[in-house]
Amino acid sequence: MGNSSNTAQKVAPSQVDNENKETKKLKPCCACPETKRARDECIVLNGEENCGELIEAHKKCMRAHGFEI
After folding, report:
1. Residues of the chain with pLDDT under 70
2. Is this prediction's pTM over 0.90?
3. Annotated binding site for Cu cation, which residues?
């Protein structure tokens, strides 16, 4: 009875930290799909020079995810 708490597997804190970092790490191509889609569509239809607002919104989103843009 007293050993029931020992049935749980013990995990070192460093293992948990490494696992969290790996699962949270995004590739640039996968971050901000909403702003990327809107930006790309605008560029195709209207030209890059007419989509500054959407381009900046995508850059802001990417920066929020830790990418240096």
Report:
1. 1-24
2. no
3. 29-30
